[in-house]
Structures are given as C-alpha cells and as structure tokens.
Amino acid sequence: MWGTTRRGRAARRVAAAISVAALAALAACSSDDSNDAKSGSAASQSSGAGGGKGDTAQLEFWGWAPGYDKVVEAFNASHPDVHVTFNKIDPGSKGGYAKMLAAVKAGNAPCLGQVGYETLPSFLVEGALADVTKEAAAAKAKYAPGAWSQMGVAGHTYGIPVDTGPVALFYRTDVFQKYNLTPPKTWDEFAQQADKVKAGDPAVAYSAVGGNDPWWLAGMAWQNGGSWFGTSGDTWKVSMTEPGTQKAMQYWQGLLDKKVVAADPTSTPDWYKRMQDGTFATYVGPVWFSALLEENAKGAAGKWAVAPMPTWDASSKATSNIGGSGTAVLKGCKNTQAAVTFADWMSSDPASLATLVKETGIYPAAAAGADLDALKQPSAYFNNQKIYDVFKESAANIPDKWQWGPTMTQVSSDLTDLAGKAASGGGPLTGALSETQAKTLKAIQDKGLKAAAG
Amino acid sequence: MKPSVRSQVLTTAFLFLMATYFLMPAWWLLVASTKSSSDLFGSHGFWFADMNLGSNLHQLFTTDDGVFGRWMANSVLYAVGGGAVATLLAAMAGYALAKYPFRGRGFVFSIILGAVLIPAPMLALPIYLMLSKAHLIDTVWAVLLPSAVSPFGVFLAKTYAEAAVPDELLEAARLDGASEFRIFRTIGLRIMSPALVTVFLFQLVAVWNNFFLPLITLNDQDLWPVTLGLNAWNSDPNQPRANLVVAGALVSVLPLVLAFLSLQRFWRSDLIAGGVKA
Amino acid sequence: MFLAPFGALFVAMYAVPVGYAVVESLHKMKRSGLGLTPPERVWAGFDNYRRALDDDALWSGVGRVLLFGIVQVPVMLGLALVLALVLDSQSARLKGLFRAAYFLPYAIPGVVATILWAFLYMPRSSPVVSMLDGLGLPSDFLGEDAVLWSIANVVTWAWTGYNTLVIYSALQAVPRELFEAAALDGCGPWRIAWRIKVPLVAPAIALTTVFSVIGTLQLYTEPRVLRPLTSTISADYTPIMSAYHQAVENNDYGQGAAVSVLLALGTCVLSFAVLKISARLTKGRASL
What is the ipTM metric for this complex? Predict the structure, then answer.
C-alpha cells in the first residue's frame, strides 16, 4: 500500500516538498504583485485621461437580476459611442461577489457590477471599487437621497443606485375576514390582533418573523431612524444595540415569547407552504417580496393583500427598507465616465425603468420612477389591488440615516446564526444583537480598520 | 451444502430492506420530476400527483432557448474529455512510477498522494489567478486543464501496474528492440486497461460534480456545466423554478447512473482495497 | 519521461496553488482608518495561525467532525461490511440487482443528494415526517440535537454502497476453496464470516477507514446545502466551512489558507494514525 516501510520518511518528505513549493511560489507571487500594482496604476492613469482611444468605449457589466440584459441591449441600440456587454452571474451571496472580488484581484474585473447596498462598504474596504464622486455628481439630484447615500461611504460615491425595498404589511384577507380584522395601523394594534388570532386557532401564526434573516431584522430596526453603522472621522461606528433597534427587537421578542408569531427559517419550501395554506396571517416585507409570494405561493392567489407598514404611534409615518442594489464601478475600470453614464441611464431612463419594473420587479431608486405607468397597474395576484400605491407611500417615508458596515458578510452570517437560534427559543434577540456587535467590532479591527461601539 | 430456505428468505428480506433505504430518495426524485411546481409542495412526496413529466421536460429543454441541453453537452465534454486525458496521464505517470526505478521515486509518489489531503476550495483562487494570467478564463480550458489531473488516479494506476505488468514481459519487448513508448502503448496500456476504467469513472464523477472552480472561472452561460446552471436556476430569487430544478436534477444524474451501470462490470474496486489479484 | 505531462499539470494545478496558499497564509491585508484606500498586502508571520488556533468556533467545528467521525465512520463501514458479507454469502439472491441499488447513490452528486434528503427532512413538506407523525412518532430532523445525525445519514447513504463494493470485491478475490475447506471442517457460515472472511478483508476495511476519515474531516457540501433550512447549522459548523467562510465570504484569503493548512496537517496526522493502528491490528494477517 502506500509504502508501509517508508511511512515516517514519507511524511517528512511531504513536509519538505511543501516548503520547496512554497519558496517557488513565493518568488512567483512577489513578481505577480508588482505587476498588479503596475497595471492598476496604468488603469487609473488612462481613466484619468478620459480613456476611449477608439470610437466606441467597451464596458463589461456583471449582474444577476433578470431583465438587465434587455436594458443593456436597449442602451447599446441608442448609444453608438458606448458598447456594454452584460454577463449574468450567480446572485452575489451565492458566489457572484466572490467571483467579482477574484476578478478584481486578477486584474480582469468588469467595469460595472451589480452590488447590494449592504455589500458596497465591504467591496470598498477590499479595494474593489472606483471612486466616481466627480463623474456621478451631476446625477445625484435624480435619486431618492436615502438610496443615493447607500452607494457611498463618508461622502465618496462608488456607483448609481438602481432599486430600493420599501416595506409594507402583507396580510391574508381570508384570515382577516374570519376574525373580523382590518389591517393594523400601529404595532400595538398588530400585537392585539396577534393575540386574537392565536386564541382563535393556535395553528395559525399571526406573522412570520425573519429570525434567521439579518436583512429583515435590520429592516425592523431601520424604521426607528437609527443606524447600525456610521463613520466618524476615520473610525467605523457600530451600534447594533442603539435604542431604535432595542425597541424593535424587544417588541418582536415579546410576540415570540407569547408564541403568537412564528420564527420558521425563511424562504424555505416549508415557509412558502405556510404562506400558501394560510397558517401565516401576515408578513412584514419589502416590495420585491410580492413577486416571490406570487411565484412560490401560486395557490394563494387572490388571498393576499398589501397595507402600509404599522407604525409606533398613529402620527408617525416612518416606514422601512429591506434590500435594494446599485450598479457599482469596479476598480480597474478604464472608462469611468462612460460607466457612470450607462449606470445612470439604466437607473433613470423611463424606458429602461419600465423594462426593469416589468422584468425584474424592482422599485426604482430614481425619484421620477414613482410616476411610471407600470407602477399604476393593478396586480392580478393581489385581487387586483394597486399594490404599488402602498409602496410609493412607503418609499417616500423611509428614514435616510441608515448605513451599512465594512464586514457585512460576517455580520450577516453571525446574525443569521445567533438571531436564528434566539428566535427559535434560545434567548433574547437583543442578546443576539449585542453578541453580533462584539463580533463585528473584532472583525472590523481584524481587517486593520478602526472601529468603536457607539 | 445448500443454505436453508429460511435463511435465504431472511437474507433477501434484509437486502431488500436496505435497498429500500438506498432507493428512497431516488424514488422521491423520480416522483417529484413528474409534478408541477404547486404539486411539488402540495401533494404527497412519495406518490404521483398529476402527470407533468412531459411538460416539465419540454419546459426544461426549451427555457432560455434550450440552454439546459447546452449545459448537459458541456458537462459531458468536460467530464469525458477531462476524464479521458486525466486517465491517460495517470496511466503514464503510474506506469513510470511502477516500472522505472529512479532516484526520488518514493518522494514523488508521496507528494502526489499528499494531494489527496488538500481541501479543494483552497486551490480554486490560486488556480483562478494563474488561469487569468494565461488568459484562459472564460474558455473551456479553464475547466478542462484542472480536470486533467488526478492524483488519486496515479495512485490507482501505479498500484495496478506494479502488481499486474510483469517486468519480464517488458524486458522481452526491449530485447526485441521495441521503443519504450511502444512498449507502454502495446503492453502497459493493454494490461492496465481494467484499472483505467476505474480511474476514468472516478474522474468522471469528480469533474461532473465540480462546482466551485467553474463558478468563478466561467462567465459565459453557454460554457457552464449543468451543475452550475441548475444552481443558478435554484438560487434565482426572482424566478423560482422548482419543477425545472427537480426535473433537471433527474436528467443530470441519468448519464452518470447509466455510465456506472454499464461500466460496472469493468469496475475494479479491489484496486482501491490494495489487494490486487491480476 | 512518462511522468512529464502529468508532472507539469500537477505542479501547475496542485503544487503551485498549495504553495500560494501557504505563502498567503503568512500574509495579511493591511488597511487603515475607514479603508477608503485600497488595502496593502503585508507579512503577517504566524498571525493568521494564531488567530485560527484562538478561534473557539473552529475548535468546536473540529470537535463536531470528530464526534461525527467516531460515530458515522464505524456505522457506515459496519453496515458496508455486513452488506458485503451477506452479498457474498450463499443465501443471497438477486445479488447484481441489490449491488446496483446500493451503489446507485454514489453516482448522484453530493449537492443533488443533499437536496434530495433536504426535501425528506423539511418538517412540513416531508413525506417521511408526515408518515412518522401518522405513526405517532414526531420527528425533527433539522433540530439542534438531530441535525448532525441527519447529515451523517446523507453521508452514510451516499458512501455505504461504494464501501460495500470495495469490501465485496476484496471478498470475491479470496479463493473459494478456502471457505469450502473450512465448511468441511465443520465451520458454520457465521463462523466462516467472522473468523476467516473478516480478517482477510481487513486491509480493505483499513483503507476505506482512512478515506472515510479524510472525507469526514473535509465535511462541507452536506451541511452547506442544509444550512439555509435550519438555524442549527452555523457558518463555521465544520472546519472546512470555516476556512471557506474566511477565504471566500469574508474575502480574507490568508486566514482561510491558514485554517486549510492546519486542517491538511491534522488530516495527515490522523490518517497516518489510522493506518498505523490498523496495521497493528491486522499484523500478521495481511500486508498493508
């Protein structure tokens, strides 16, 4: 077999060979790095000079949203001076981001990439973004301020926002009818209705809690006007225990303790099954959830409706945001001006937005997007309700102070693990958040950045 | 001495029970692939609902201009091409390690064996960086080149060659004036062929299942293997295509199952056990 | 000469990447302040290794796979041995058919296999759960206590047939006359199995053990696929998940590489240990 008599020696030899290979690679890698540095600076020089020595500027664009390919085609048809090539990649967290970062590292990244708002700061600290503050300045006025700020950090801009995720309340009309309920206006009313439904049928959960969905938890906190992250001078501020978050988490914890809401893992086939069979009566979700619901709970057509997100008191209008993404300009892009031109066109041109609303199901970040015809149509699945009216109102009332941090993959997975456990009965949600905060501070510091609680 | 009827019945019942366990998920897959999206979660998993296999298959092969067929073809190309080259290279290397004494032979062999211990995800990024230096990203070579190396195959080929290829035969051929390459081709390869089927099957499965490397090295959807394509369909949040993913999963495992069942009689797993009886 | 083509590709696809990983494990990215300027790669010495060894989550991952291995590997190989012996016995019928059925899971890719089982684990859609409920046996395959064994089941399902085939082939290679002679001496089938057959296939069992141990330490696909379905599988549930999480999701390749190097070394030590122990146990019976 594998050399019984020489086993001990073999082990030593493996060790020796690994160190030899390491030395060889060391030599190879150090030359690689100097090449990268050179090509990097060459790229920034040529982009400074305006790029485009030929007639047509060539841009590559990676993203995963359906419909982007059609928008790119339309752009190419109407803009002879710029040609964009679109490549569909896997969704960011499913491998798309890893791919973009690897491409940046190898020096062959595309000019543009679809990047979720939550991931933008991470891309920045990995050195994967190009600063386009100057190129993009003129476009700023076209976009909702909250969305625009998501594409930047500390006053610098790195791309153009595409869509946002205004939040509303999805509810089952059949369940509401049975218990004679009207959509709750405040969280107090929401909690009372939850008790009522639980008393009527213990098998029905009044609402589904995204316990293992960090973005949903953030969305609940977002409504209260605070932010988990911020910058102060050259330091990242982490405040996942700020009062607004505490308030929201304690509220949901109370409902969980009473078992009037359920914390099943989200977006699984089982979860959608409950959405379909009526054992979830409500869900607090973003605009893009409407498309998911329609696809995954086809059998519940006509039974779901949309109402405004409940608020803490009747006079407040603040809503929230979950998700949303933009088109970021990646490092190494040789023609940043053309890249911004395309990204801006895609996010604000009425024809492009109409395509995106129809094909991708987005809610536009551009202020003018709210007037699109496509957003005035009734939705068959929602019993012909004009659901976008609700989301339009919601979009106008999203607090714009929210910021994301530089290690969101870590935050996301730690929060998924900790809050997921907490929500399924392993302790308070607030504890999961403070534990995540401690881990986050350490993770940011491990990256060599400055971070402080607050 | 014939075993009693009772022991035959008991034994067969036991074997049957175990077969149920091994076939249960496969049965689920078969049943699920005949269902529409809503029946998939709305009807009993182990029995048929409305028969939608035809429409699922039709949809599977026509969605996005029939890109699924293309993915299948790519997978076959990568797995068969990569597997064949890997097998040939492993045969040559194993033969050399078994039949040509040279200094450091044991050392080279230990290094190759050591490769089995390396966690695969770690290799992807360095390979990606090298391939991109060579401008091979987004070409079929980005998958084929890494697939053409099988350290485990070398191990199998060497073990077999050592035991099965007689030195005397090689000596006799040399005396007849045959070139080393000719000896390898006419004697070595021929005698080693049963082992090589095993190596080929191993590598076929490994390449077919390969996921992370094509994920980062291939941008063009037309070059994707079927694993990547199904994953993309599965994880596309805007267009869940559960029925297509299930039907696609069934279709994508069929070639492997067929390859195994048809090549099973050549399968030399005793090789792996080290007890070669040539 | 015959080694050259393989050698060249091996160096390119294994040796250099491993070297790269080792070198990177000794480096880290240096950033400052908010990180607005691109990071710089600097020498880190053994910092990454120190961080890895200080990481409680990594250690609990190691503990988890060890527990997994101590239970799953013997169960799977025991089952494989029994199946191989039964298939080899004279009482068995339809051997070819059963062999093919047991071997079938091996041809199904790990990801697909896990997705299949996931459908059978999900509390509300699984036909298995509903059948058990019908029998008055409530089950929670994805719960805190059960999930590790649910993963073990997927691995057992996928690999038992393969191991059965390996042991079975070893049995088939033993000359039949040996068993006939033993039977003439008055040995019953059970005695023949345990006293003659098992010792003869000991090397095959030792080898499947080594490969199973390596596979256990590299456990990744199955928990990764099940993770979105349950809150009981964390991002660093197993050591490889931890390495992958660092390298790919956190984009800290140096840290991930350090974890991988440690893991490869650990695997190396453990598989040699298994070989050594089994060599001692089978000493005098067969050469390993």
Answer: 0.84
